[in-house]
Amino acid sequence: MVGGPVRDALLGRSGNDLDFTTSARPDQIEALLRQVSRSLWDMGREFGTIGCAVFEDDRELILEVTTFRAEAYDAQSRKPDVKFGEHLGADLVRRDFTVNAMALSMTGGELLDPFGGLADLERGVLATPSTPELSFSDDPLRMLRAARFASQLEFAPADDVASAMTDMAARIDIVSAERVREELTKLLLSPRPRLGLDLLVQTGLADQMLPELPALRMERDEHNRHKDVYEHSLTVLDQAIDLEWRLGGPDLINRLAALLHDVGKPRTRRFEPGGKVSFHHHDVVGAKLITKRLTALRFPTDVIKAVAKLAELHLRFHGYGEGQWTDSAVRRYVRDAGDQLERLHILTRSDCTTRNAAKAARLRRAYEELEFRIDELAGQEELNALRPDLDGEQIMAILGLSPGPLVGQAYRFLLEKRIDDGPLGEAVAADALRAWWAERA
């Protein structure tokens, strides 16, 4: 057994995913695993990996068995050149960090630790089995893994590892967007993503893969003061994570939205008279930047749309002020948030990072009032499915229309009427529709 499962066992953590390495070739591995499992997969066969699922004491274990190997990247290649090996030592030296380069013999039971991984585990340090320059040149994605393990394990990179990450940051460009996205996702879903994200920014890796994040470190001077947007964004992320119990657990969309909600500020910063600084429309600009960046990183379309929507709506609460919310304002807020309403609640609450306790308490009470109004109105109306009192077929029948743009305009008129005035009933809605149509004519 090798890698992460050995590391986690030494840390006192249990898991269901177990990795093994062996001199056996993929065909031999497959034949052996078929003796213990009917559920096999071989998508990693070209890399020497065969996987299977087995059940033990009513628990499913995921096993992946890989032939000893050594792999390296060509200077311009995005895919590793895989070569199978004959010895464990050659396999362990190619692994990313010493804490992941330990093996447990399944026959003798001894711990095999040729690169001092146990000592580094005790010190909480991320070091490489070979030189970091050679390791990161072989697979540049390991630089992102350093950031991910900093977040997952709360370990610090060794000085030479951090230096190599800084010097070789541009090397990450040869790695495919899909692999970068997967590492970034794992980092964001870790217990302390702030640690890894800060490491990416400090080493310059973020400039290569997520430049909107370091761009938040805008220079300030004594005459034009504004909040440190970079630190603010990391604090919003921390606070959004603390509220994820409302979503049932770690949530990628929630964390991306919290981290990136202000990325439009650098583009929209203006210095106003009297030393003030404004960021007009940074919500809209930020949504566009988020869409472009997450698309480049090959995130799923539904994730991109949700994160962009949350960024675009994150100021909506403040636009209404802290006074009494009218029914129409509540309906419009719910309508615009759609299926992202709960995440918008979390983002808006988390976006309050002021050190002014009185102001923070006032904003918290105001948002609690909004959530109360939403719940209260939802008990009276179907807020989760806001629609006009008449459907498209009824609209066409009343106005004598065929399918086309005019039906859509009539539908939007009735929807706005529904939001402003609440449920009307079909008869009143039909009268309003006829009056609107007559006015148009």
Characterize the structure shown.
The chain has 441 residues and is an alpha+beta fold. The protein has three domains: 162 residues, Hydrophobic Seed Protein; 164 residues, Hypothetical protein af1432, CATH 1.10.3210; 53 residues. It is built from 22 helices and twelve strands. It has a four-stranded mixed beta sheet, covered by helices on one side. A two-stranded antiparallel ribbon has the order 5-6. Strand 7 and strand 8 form a beta hairpin. Helix 6 runs parallel beside helix 8 and helix 17 crosses helix 19.
Tag the structure with descriptive keywords.
four-stranded mixed β-sheet; elongated; two-stranded antiparallel sheet; 51% helix; alpha+beta; Hydrophobic Seed Protein; Hypothetical protein af1432; 441 residues
Give the arrangement of secondary structure elements.
Blueprint (H helix, E strand, L loop, with lengths): L3 H7 L6 E6 L3 H8 L5 E3 L7 E8 L2 E9 L1 E4 L8 E4 L3 H6 L9 E2 L6 E2 L4 H7 L1 E2 L5 H7 L2 H13 L2 E2 L1 H9 L9 H12 L4 H11 L1 H5 L19 H14 L9 H9 L4 H4 L1 E2 L5 E2 L3 H15 L4 H13 L2 H4 L7 H11 L3 H10 L6 H22 L13 H8 L5 H17 L4 H15 L1
Parallel strand pairs: 1-4, 9-10
Antiparallel strand pairs: 2-3, 3-4, 5-6, 7-8, 11-12
Helix pairs in contact: 6-8, 6-9, 11-12, 11-18, 12-15, 12-18, 14-15, 17-19
Q: Indicate the structural class.
A: alpha+beta
Provide the gyration radius in Å.
28 Å
What is the domain total for the residues? Answer: 3
Distance between the termini: 78 Å
CATH architecture of the largest domain: Orthogonal Bundle
Q: Can you tell me the overall shape? A: elongated
Give the proportion of residues in helices: 40-55%
Q: How much is the average pLDDT?
A: 87
